[in-house]
Amino acid sequence: MSGRYLLRRLAQVVPAVAATLITAFVVIHVAPGDPVLALAGQHGDAAYYALIRAKFGLDRPLPEQLLVYAANVVRGDLGVSYVHGRPVVSILLERLPATLILMTSALVASSIAGIALGVTAARRADRPTDLIVRIAALVGYATPSFWLAQIAALTLALGTGWFPVQGITDARHVSTGWRYAADVIHHLALPALVLAINELALTTRLVRTGVLQSLATDYIRTARAKGLPERAVVRHAFRNALLPVVTVIGGRVGMLFTGAVLVEAVFAWPGLGLLLLSSIQTRDVPVLLGVFLLVSLVVIVTNVVTDLAYAWLDPRIRYE
Amino acid sequence: MSRALRTPGGVLGFTLTLMFIGLALAAHVVAPADPFASVGSPLNPPSRAYTLGTDDLGRDVFSGIVHGTRTSLTVAFAVILIASIIGIAVGAVAGYRGGGVDDLLMRGTEAVQIVPRFFLAVIVIAMFGPGLDRVVFVLGVTSWPAIARVVRAETLSLARREFVDAAHAIGARTPRILLRHVLPNAVPTALVVISLNAASVILLEAGLGFIGLGDPRSISLGYLANNAQRFMRVAWWMTLFPGAAIALAVLGLNLVGDALSDLSNPRRPGRTA
Amino acid sequence: MRRGQRWIVLSALVASVIWATPAWLHAQDTPTRGGTLVVAISADPGHLNPAITTSGATHTAAELLYNGLLGRDERGDPIPDLAESWTIEQSGAVYRFRLRNDVSWHDGTRFTSTHVKFTFEEVLLKFHARTKASIGGALAGIDAPDDRTVVFRFKQPYAPLLMQLDATEAPIVAKHVYQGSDPQTNPANAQPIGTGPFRFTSYRKGAEIRLARNAAYFKKGLPYLDELVMRVIPDPGTQVLALENGEVDFLWGVPGPDQNRLKGDSRFRTAQTSYHPGGSNCIMTVSFNLERPILKDVRVRRAIAHALDRDAFLRQVLFSEGRVATAPISSELAWAHARGLNMPSFDRAEAERLLDTAGWKKERDTTRVARGVPGVPDGTRLAIDFLHFPAFSKYGELMRQQLGAVGIDVTPRPLEPAVFAPTVFKDRNFDTNVISYCNGPDPEIGVRRMYHSSQIGPVPFTNAAAYRNERVDTLFDLAGRTVERDKRTPIYRQIQEIVVQDLPYYWLVETPTTRAWSAKCGSFKAWTGLFAEAAFCNR
After folding, report:
1. Fewer beta carbons within 10 angstroms: which end of chain C, N or C?
2. Is A317 on the interface with C (CB under 8 A)?
């Protein structure tokens, strides 16, 4: 695609990043209490507080503080967690992979299932199958994910004994190589399933709408009038229907992160969700802010990537 | 809108939604007892005396659900109100002014849309303390972009300047034009957004409750579902009914949203042949 | 009977007895070596140094890596651990400990008295809140005259020392690891070296901690287990599921609703105990802010006490696991717990009568208003707030229900622990609150701080009520100096009688926890942090 489009798209990242930074900054400073205590904890000593004050420029005027904060974040310095005694960035990077594995598997699973269901619903539009499929998908979305997770743990894990209820690996047998991967997948199954079910409805609805819309276009009507086999017609409609699925991945990623927190809590999956939980209890504000910024960043990046992919897929945009 | 009611999905959705709204409005009539009051022995299964059983403190689950619906829907309504005010303002100005103002506002809208609502709510509650007002504020202030887009689209489509100039000529002021002509056209599409938003607000509130950031002073559906988690294996009625209530409310709102959005998307395969 | 036949009959008898005995009895009689025990813990400990913190999460995870000078038996009395014997001299002003000489650290270094002296002086007395608060003020000095002797010298006779020397209150850390560094940031906190029955293998933050058997442990033959894994599982329901699914073998606490089911399931064993590494012998206690005019009148406080149905608290919040508190000191400290005290009974009529007498009248509203209450303007509603951790919200709900029934409007205010502490102790911005005050192994450790007037201040979890009573102060000082238990008992009795009259607090329920483990494993010591020292599993 054109370089201009690329640059323009990348430039749009700036206000998004600025919005998240400003939001985080405002929250720290508007909240009751001294920002130093929020960032450094209640039990620090005077020297540590002075250090934090200097680092975040807390004695300088607010606009300057914002710039200091922004500069720090851009450099990758999200502060130090006084609870863990380590830089926030290292803590986040430690926990991120587990959550990414969970989210990616859920994303793939719900995409495949969503596409299948959406196409089914579209092809039988307005007939009973359509309604059943849509309602089933919606029920999956409407049920709170922690509720679904508990039911899944109770029935699919404890009930059948096929799946474990907690953790990312087997506690008793430490494995390596292929066995390790298999172990992780075994533990991944239920959390990813719950997360996927929760997220399915959106994809199903999008695909269904997309297929129906493209089936109604003149292009398709012409193809039909020309006597093209139905299968070819569907294939064309299908390709166009996929576009919304791709574009919306950014929003889905945000939703998946939220769902991941609740699912990780139930299944003791050691990712960002569990980190968020423990940081809430200890009031570890630097980590809470770090998670917020990280999630925002991932959503922004996903949006950029999918927008570029969308532009690549849809020839209409390519030649701008 | 009546066309939307013709589809089975639409019917189901509207029925559910109206049922819940009715329940919320008539809460004091349907379940006049204080939902916080202990009415019977704890952990009673559903019976004639207690339609949906009692919870661990002996409170009536049915009362809890009725009042919980009221609270949850009130929260959703408040969020939508705030989001609508901001969204309409931004969307109308962006669509009407166009040009640089439009660009700026749209960049801002995209930026706000990125902000992950749940995580922001977590930080705000962690730092300001629990409370439904915090939830309402955070969600309201981050949910307006979708509404702004809808309003902007409608305002833009009304960019027939002649119409506006004519209206101006007869002395009508801009806000009046917007109010009388733009907004009514925006309502159907906005309703889609609103119903979907309401649904996700209910789920977000339940999720916050689950991780311990809910407001224990008010009974909401999220509080009930969260409270009942521990008792899932000894008192199934405590989790089933609030969970079902949430699911049905969200389902109803989504079906309504679906039906309304189907309306604005022309698609009738097979009718063309 | 001929000799051969006798032997056959005897063997047959023995064999049939063994065969008839249920398998679990076998499991508990004959320890099997080897195997892995998986333990569920509720929170990531953050680090593994229990000497710099009183956090339950760290102590639960890390105590098996260390020892104290003494240990605890089932009744909580001191037994030898790193110290093999001790003498008390000068009526309790001097304690002399003789240490074992066969103890080595996990890295092979020999354990000597210098490690003990270092741990107390540089670590415990600086960072361990309970030890610092109690021993810190009373200690004159510690001497290590030779490798096997440690001497504690106190300014005055100090009674509770022997109860404060286990791995929970005073774990001993390695001098050669921590010397010259800041104990709070030393990297050894994540890769600990101790003397305990298990040594550190790995720690995956937020997920699990792996420990391995210390083959050179000074208690010969122990531990039996090869490996011990602690899994972080924050959701209590999931912990139970994991136990039932065989993924986890040991739980530190069984949630109320699941207790009956687990107790009735022959695949599991349970044990109730008031010991917990984060704090033992705890009583859920309501504090009255005595500085608030509404609560200054003891009749109001007594009315509140009479209005509370503590059995309801026990049933509904604790699922009957625990007891209603019958004295200010926990019944687990049997020698100090006063029996037959005149605690206010659940009597709504009496509560209403007291409130009426104190000038709080019931008028049109359900909430009483002041008419002639000193320090309170007429017409003020009897409305109080009730601060609590979010985890204790049930207490708030019951308080609101039960006090509402006698005309007191209670507003529960949930506050996260990090905010609760400064709000209550620094700002004193509360009317009432509920705190799990843990008495600890000795009243000097956990009870004194609630009532002594010197303990009013910003340090969290001290004298929340701001109670001042000179006589009680004097009695506590005396009890702290008296070493003989039978002489301390009457002193604590007098204290309890006074505070039950004054009612600066109201003691609701004692809160033990129930441990649960797979029946395939056994020999756990639920009363100490070294719970798996002698444990084994038969699989």
Report:
1. N
2. no
Least CB–CB distance from B129: residue in C315, C401, C415: C415
Task: Compute the average pLDDT of residues A50-67.
Answer: 79
Q: Are the C-beta atoms of C66 and C167 separated by less than 8 Å?
A: yes
pLDDT surpasses 70 at A96: yes
Chain B, 212-231: which have a CB under 8 Å from a chain A CB?
212-213, 222, 225-226, 229
Map residue A110 onto helix, strand or coil: helix
C401/B233 touch (CB, cutoff 8 Å), yes or no: no
Place of tokens 């609030």: B242
Contact B216 C396 (CB under 8 A): yes
**pLDDT, position A211:** 79
Exposure of A117 in the CB half-sphere (CA atoms within 13 A) = 24
Question: In terms of DSSP bridges, do strands C36-41 and C227-232 run parallel, antiparallel, or are they unpaired?
Answer: parallel
Question: Alpha-carbon distance B188 to B150, whole Å?
Answer: 10
CA-nearest residue of chain C to B223?
Answer: C393
Give how far A1 is from chain B: nearest CA, Å: 22
Eight-class DSSP state of C122: I
**CA–centroid distance for B156 within its chain:** 26
Strand order in the sheet with C149-154: C83-89, C94-99, C149-154, C139-146
Q: Scanning the structure block, which residue is given the tokens 């006063």?
A: C338
The separation between CA B9 and the C-alpha centre of its own chain, rounded to angstroms, equals 19
CA nearest C386 in B: which residue?
A: B217
Nearest to A288 among B117, B122, B272 (CB): B122
**Mode of pairing for the β-strands spanning C505-510 and C227-232:** unpaired
**A180 has a pLDDT exceeding 50:** yes
Q: What is the pLDDT of residues A230-275, one digit of tens each?
A: 777 667 767 766 777 777 777 789 889 999 999 999 999 999 999 9
Length of chain A: 320
The two three-digit tokens of residue C294, written as one number: 């509404």
CB contact under 8 A, C247 and A278: no
Which is higher by pLDDT, B172 or A280?
A: A280
Mean pLDDT value across residues A72-77: 84
Helix, strand, coil percent values for chain C (each to nearest 5): 35, 20, 40
More confident residue, C531 or C137: C531
SS3 at position A3: helix
Cβ within 8 Å, pair B127-A27: yes
Q: Which chains touch A (3 or more CB pairs under 8 A)?
A: B, C
pTM of the model: 0.87
pLDDT tier for residue B268 given thresholds of 50, 70 and 90? very low
pLDDT per residue as tens digits for the range C342-377: 999 999 999 999 999 999 999 888 899 999 999 899
Provide, rounded to the nearest whole percent, the portion of chain C with pLDDT above 90.
76
Question: What are the C-alpha distances in Å from C473 to residues A169, B158, C441, C486, C493?
Answer: 55, 81, 20, 20, 14
d(CA C335, CA C32): 38
3-state secondary structure of A227: coil
Band the pLDDT of C272: cuts 50, 70, 90.
very high
Q: Mutating which of C416, C419, C420, C429 best tests the B interface, going by the most B Cβ atoms within 10 A?
A: C416
CB nearest to B116's CB, from A283, A288, A295:
A295
Strand C369-370 to C360-361 pairing = antiparallel
Q: Is the pLDDT of residue C507 over 60?
A: yes
The one-character DSSP state at C365 is S
Residue pLDDT, tens place only, A129-173: 888 888 888 888 888 888 899 889 989 988 888 999 999 999 998
Separation CA C56–CA C35 (nearest Å): 26
Contact A258 B118 (CB under 8 A): yes
Q: Tell whether B118 lies on the interface with A, counting CB pairs under 8 A.
A: yes
For the CA atoms of A27, A29, A35, A40, the dihedral, rounded to the nearest 10 degrees, stands at: 40
